[in-house]
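Progress against Task 2.4 (sequence-to-structure conversion) is shown through the following example record, which the project officer requested during the mid-term review.
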Amino acid sequence: MIRTISIQYFHAIFSLLFLLPSLLYAQQVQRVTLNGTIRDGKSGETLVGASIRVQGATNLGTAANSYGFFSLSLSPGQYDIVFSSLGYQSTTLSIDLQEDRRLNVELMPNNVLDEVEIVADNGSRERLESPKMGVQKLEIREMNRVPVIFGERDVLKVIQLLPGVMSGGEGTSGFFVRGGAADQNLVLLDEAVVYNASHLLGFFSSFNSDAIKGLELYKGGMPAQYGGRLASVLDVSMLDGNNQQYGAEGGIGLIASRLKVDGPIVKGKGSFMVSGRRTYVDQFLRISPDSTVNSSKLYFYDLNMKANYQLNANNTLYLSGYFGKDLLGYSNTFGFDWGNATGTLRWNHLFSDKLFSNTSLIYSDFKYNVNVFNDNNDFRIASNIKNANLKQDFQYFASNASTLRFGVHVLRQQISPAGIEASNTSDINSLTIDRRIGHEVAAYLSHEWKPRTNLSFLYGLRMSSFLQFGPGTFYTFDSEGDPTSSEEYRAGKLVQTYFNMEPRFSVNYMMGENTSLKASYNRNTQNLHQLSNSISSLPTDAWVMSSNIIRPQIADQVSVGYYRNFLGDRYEFSTEAYYKDMQRQIDYRNGADLQANEYVESELIFGKGRAYGLEFYVKKNRGRLNGWLSYTLSRSERRFDGINEGRWFAARQDRTHDVAVVAMYKISDRWDLSGNFVFQTGNAVTFPSGKYDMGGKTLFYYTERNAHRMPNYHRMDLGATWTGKDRADRRFRSSWTFGLYNVYNRQNAYIIDFRDKKGSPGQTEAYQVSLFGIIPSVTWNFRF
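Structure tokens generated for the chain above:
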């Protein structure tokens, strides 16, 4: 029955997909179209989100899409068109537009220092006027100026300084958005899912900033083309590479070095980019006289690669990939490695001046291995999750006031849970757990419509169907978690189907030239779930998919916002309030065993969640001094029948207050200063309620979940960059970046644990573990 309904709904949406463009096109009378691609004049990189506006007409304009393509419909006539983008010199072209015309535009980077002011951002108008809510767009130039730990430029650390985004803990790259869990964030790199976007257990992210063009973070009001997660979408795009000339850039730091090489495949038509990074802490270990230390391993590497080629004016191919791996080994007794691999093949095609198509074939793979070597316990634990995804997306520019997006996504996902492979002499038994296979098919339609100059809408519908297939044994459990029945399914046999409709709606009302009110509602569903009992996700956390036991998670979010720009867009202010209702949330029983457990679903319990908050954001976009201030007041709570007697309790990521201040100051054309300060209320944590003695060993027992708080967290970081002289006759350029992490040496708590007090066994004392004090860093950057 469910499958029949799904087919009927898919048939209906396909009819709408092809009917609506025809109806919209039929309404266009005596219009001609100007379209083309906007690129960097030096490198040939496409400029995402570049602005195209008719001079003197505030309501005539558009923005380039994710591939730099734009389409603008106008009445025949003479126009002055202004093309602009963040960090580039604006260009105005006089165009006599009497018929459809294609115009490719190149903008030159703005590398000249203005003694009066520096333009840091021209996207504030888009945030003010667009119906999208809860969206943060960051350019890599801006992110690279923010000081971070060890001096390694890190996009995931920077987004933690934005309102509504909270860090997973000291030094980690994990993050939480608007009260959601870490696994409720969809992280994409050139459309491919990155399951664990961290290195060295979270101290670095998987994103090498040298290879990144920019990112968009959606906290609410997600467009219908995104799906699969409840809390947010982080969409990261890689650089295409320079199609004009060969070049290289990189940096040498205290613990890591990086190098990027790019250049034309065929000048003006195609390019490549290869970027790599590696730490070398393990090289320092080798010089230790201790044989245990010098035989240990501790490093990570990542490699980004991308190539593109323009077949003709209407067709362009892109091929990109990412490969990253971490390795931790303690002498010859323990080894732990994990890594991501992604690949994306894309085909851009223009069916007409108004219809843009992108076809993507995507592959993602994440795996980890734990190896233990000793006489009695010689075993290996391995787990793997991977997917293959086919996406067909269309963008139809019906008019300047109407843009239609629609498409179909088909995803196959396979999880190989952590099993144990033990040697014949090991005291531990081998364990093989059935892999799980699921398919998700989704179709979506969204419409961005501006019926009046002061009113705009973005609304759409995403319909998704999840199907789980065999092979494997599937169980049912009683209320205590004991198996009551099982059924064996052969390969390809359908086990369970879920169908969900996800409406999305956003509206923007301009109250004046510089003020707007926005509201949005969106529903999201999630069929992939991470099981974790730590505050920040670890590589060894188990993944499960929706099944006969686990139903898809659902979140409904409502938000309202007020936006205002001041002093000619020099300053921008926004505040957003949100409420999120979450169904079918997943937690675990007290004392649950989540690893290498073939009955892991028996350890799970299901309940509700809610999150609500108020976010403030003030940003200075121009001048020698620029930066932003963000503040979030929020709560995130859960309720399960089996926890805290069914009462609402704070989620692990619940923090009442979260403050971030970021400042960047341009002293001269050679010196830049930067700094940031963060303050966070301690997150919820479970402390012991009592203890008992068993055979002379003290054991603690716990009653109420997340009833206590970690100490408040605060820290200040400072950075400075010195740039060498820029000589016209030399291509080689270099700079030095200096940093101080945790300037005033705050000993923030990473762990609070408990033990018997020395000399007084009957008394219990708490003790704090801190990771970092003040940390200096220095990096030499070069480019030629």
